[in-house]
Amino acid sequence: MTGIFENITDSKSALAKLASKVPGLGGFMERNDRRAADKLLRETLSRRVEEQHRRIGDLQQQMMSGQGLLMLDDMERAQTSLVTFADSIRTASYGYAGLFDKVKINEEELSKVYDYDSGLFENVQDLTSALDNIQVTIDTGEGLSAAVRELIRAATTAMEAFRRREDVFLGLA
Which of 11, 36, 66, 123 ranks highest by number of CB atoms within 10 Å? Predict the structure, then answer.
Protein backbone atom coordinates (compact mmCIF):
# COMPACT_ATOMS: atom_id res chain seq x y z
CA MET A 1 0.00 0.00 0.00
CA THR A 2 2.90 2.37 0.58
CA GLY A 3 3.52 2.66 -3.18
CA ILE A 4 0.28 4.50 -3.97
CA PHE A 5 1.92 7.94 -3.70
CA GLU A 6 4.79 6.82 -5.92
CA ASN A 7 2.35 5.41 -8.49
CA ILE A 8 0.50 8.72 -8.62
CA THR A 9 3.64 10.80 -9.03
CA ASP A 10 5.16 8.39 -11.58
CA SER A 11 2.03 8.47 -13.75
CA LYS A 12 2.13 12.24 -14.25
CA SER A 13 2.37 13.57 -17.78
CA ALA A 14 5.51 15.32 -18.96
CA LEU A 15 3.66 18.66 -18.80
CA ALA A 16 2.65 18.05 -15.17
CA LYS A 17 6.23 17.11 -14.29
CA LEU A 18 7.49 20.29 -15.94
CA ALA A 19 4.85 22.40 -14.16
CA SER A 20 5.93 20.93 -10.82
CA LYS A 21 9.31 22.63 -11.28
CA VAL A 22 7.69 26.10 -11.22
CA PRO A 23 8.41 27.70 -7.82
CA GLY A 24 5.41 27.43 -5.53
CA LEU A 25 3.47 25.24 -7.94
CA GLY A 26 5.59 22.16 -7.26
CA GLY A 27 4.71 22.09 -3.55
CA PHE A 28 1.05 22.63 -4.33
CA MET A 29 1.05 19.72 -6.82
CA GLU A 30 2.90 17.44 -4.41
CA ARG A 31 0.37 18.18 -1.65
CA ASN A 32 -2.45 17.35 -4.06
CA ASP A 33 -0.70 14.09 -5.01
CA ARG A 34 -0.31 13.17 -1.33
CA ARG A 35 -3.98 13.93 -0.69
CA ALA A 36 -4.99 11.78 -3.66
CA ALA A 37 -2.77 8.93 -2.46
CA ASP A 38 -4.21 9.12 1.05
CA LYS A 39 -7.75 9.14 -0.36
CA LEU A 40 -7.04 6.02 -2.45
CA LEU A 41 -5.43 4.32 0.52
CA ARG A 42 -8.41 5.06 2.77
CA GLU A 43 -10.90 3.93 0.12
CA THR A 44 -9.05 0.61 -0.05
CA LEU A 45 -8.95 0.40 3.73
CA SER A 46 -12.66 1.16 3.95
CA ARG A 47 -13.49 -1.57 1.42
CA ARG A 48 -11.49 -4.10 3.45
CA VAL A 49 -13.35 -3.14 6.64
CA GLU A 50 -16.67 -3.45 4.80
CA GLU A 51 -15.66 -6.96 3.66
CA GLN A 52 -15.17 -7.93 7.31
CA HIS A 53 -18.49 -6.28 8.18
CA ARG A 54 -20.24 -8.53 5.66
CA ARG A 55 -18.51 -11.55 7.18
CA ILE A 56 -20.11 -10.74 10.54
CA GLY A 57 -23.55 -11.02 8.95
CA ASP A 58 -22.64 -14.42 7.52
CA LEU A 59 -21.31 -15.59 10.87
CA GLN A 60 -24.45 -14.39 12.64
CA GLN A 61 -26.51 -16.57 10.33
CA GLN A 62 -24.37 -19.55 11.33
CA MET A 63 -24.76 -18.69 15.01
CA MET A 64 -28.57 -18.84 14.96
CA SER A 65 -28.50 -22.19 16.73
CA GLY A 66 -27.01 -23.47 19.97
CA GLN A 67 -24.80 -21.28 22.14
CA GLY A 68 -24.28 -18.86 19.27
CA LEU A 69 -27.74 -17.45 19.76
CA LEU A 70 -26.62 -15.99 23.08
CA MET A 71 -23.76 -14.12 21.38
CA LEU A 72 -25.78 -12.40 18.64
CA ASP A 73 -26.13 -9.14 20.58
CA ASP A 74 -22.36 -8.97 21.06
CA MET A 75 -21.83 -9.69 17.37
CA GLU A 76 -24.24 -6.84 16.58
CA ARG A 77 -22.11 -4.50 18.73
CA ALA A 78 -19.01 -5.52 16.80
CA GLN A 79 -20.84 -5.09 13.51
CA THR A 80 -21.91 -1.57 14.47
CA SER A 81 -18.30 -0.74 15.39
CA LEU A 82 -17.09 -1.93 12.00
CA VAL A 83 -19.69 0.17 10.17
CA THR A 84 -18.61 3.21 12.19
CA PHE A 85 -14.93 2.45 11.49
CA ALA A 86 -15.51 2.06 7.73
CA ASP A 87 -17.61 5.24 7.56
CA SER A 88 -15.02 7.20 9.55
CA ILE A 89 -12.26 6.10 7.21
CA ARG A 90 -14.25 6.88 4.09
CA THR A 91 -15.36 10.35 5.21
CA ALA A 92 -12.18 11.55 6.96
CA SER A 93 -10.57 14.76 5.79
CA TYR A 94 -7.85 14.52 3.17
CA GLY A 95 -5.49 16.95 4.81
CA TYR A 96 -6.73 20.12 3.19
CA ALA A 97 -5.95 23.38 4.93
CA GLY A 98 -7.54 26.59 3.77
CA LEU A 99 -5.82 29.92 3.52
CA PHE A 100 -7.11 31.11 6.89
CA ASP A 101 -7.07 27.80 8.82
CA LYS A 102 -5.24 27.86 12.15
CA VAL A 103 -3.55 24.52 11.42
CA LYS A 104 -1.62 24.45 8.15
CA ILE A 105 -0.99 21.07 6.55
CA ASN A 106 2.28 20.77 4.66
CA GLU A 107 3.92 17.89 2.79
CA GLU A 108 5.54 16.50 5.94
CA GLU A 109 2.24 16.31 7.84
CA LEU A 110 0.50 14.83 4.81
CA SER A 111 3.21 12.19 4.64
CA LYS A 112 2.70 11.39 8.33
CA VAL A 113 -1.08 11.09 7.84
CA TYR A 114 -0.52 8.77 4.87
CA ASP A 115 1.85 6.62 6.93
CA TYR A 116 -0.61 6.57 9.82
CA ASP A 117 -3.44 5.54 7.51
CA SER A 118 -1.23 2.79 6.07
CA GLY A 119 -0.74 1.49 9.61
CA LEU A 120 -4.51 1.07 10.00
CA PHE A 121 -4.25 -2.01 7.76
CA GLU A 122 -2.84 -3.80 10.83
CA ASN A 123 -6.14 -3.12 12.59
CA VAL A 124 -8.03 -4.60 9.65
CA GLN A 125 -5.79 -7.68 9.84
CA ASP A 126 -6.63 -8.02 13.54
CA LEU A 127 -10.35 -7.84 12.67
CA THR A 128 -9.87 -10.48 9.97
CA SER A 129 -8.05 -12.78 12.41
CA ALA A 130 -10.76 -12.33 15.04
CA LEU A 131 -13.46 -13.23 12.51
CA ASP A 132 -11.44 -16.25 11.34
CA ASN A 133 -11.27 -17.36 14.97
CA ILE A 134 -15.05 -16.98 15.36
CA GLN A 135 -15.55 -19.15 12.28
CA VAL A 136 -13.35 -21.84 13.84
CA THR A 137 -15.23 -21.68 17.15
CA ILE A 138 -18.58 -21.95 15.37
CA ASP A 139 -17.30 -25.02 13.54
CA THR A 140 -15.87 -26.65 16.68
CA GLY A 141 -18.46 -25.41 19.17
CA GLU A 142 -15.87 -24.29 21.72
CA GLY A 143 -14.70 -20.86 22.86
CA LEU A 144 -17.25 -18.75 21.02
CA SER A 145 -17.71 -16.27 23.86
CA ALA A 146 -13.98 -15.55 24.08
CA ALA A 147 -13.71 -15.26 20.28
CA VAL A 148 -16.56 -12.72 20.16
CA ARG A 149 -14.94 -10.70 22.98
CA GLU A 150 -11.72 -10.66 20.94
CA LEU A 151 -13.63 -9.32 17.93
CA ILE A 152 -15.16 -6.57 20.05
CA ARG A 153 -11.71 -5.70 21.41
CA ALA A 154 -10.24 -5.57 17.87
CA ALA A 155 -13.11 -3.36 16.65
CA THR A 156 -12.73 -1.01 19.63
CA THR A 157 -8.96 -0.81 19.13
CA ALA A 158 -9.44 -0.01 15.43
CA MET A 159 -11.81 2.86 16.21
CA GLU A 160 -9.49 4.22 18.90
CA ALA A 161 -6.58 4.13 16.45
CA PHE A 162 -8.61 6.01 13.88
CA ARG A 163 -9.68 8.64 16.42
CA ARG A 164 -5.98 9.29 17.14
CA ARG A 165 -5.50 10.17 13.45
CA GLU A 166 -6.41 13.77 14.19
CA ASP A 167 -3.40 13.95 16.53
CA VAL A 168 -1.20 13.56 13.45
CA PHE A 169 -2.77 16.69 11.91
CA LEU A 170 -2.23 18.60 15.14
CA GLY A 171 1.36 17.37 15.52
CA LEU A 172 0.58 15.49 18.73
CA ALA A 173 1.41 12.05 17.37
Answer: 123
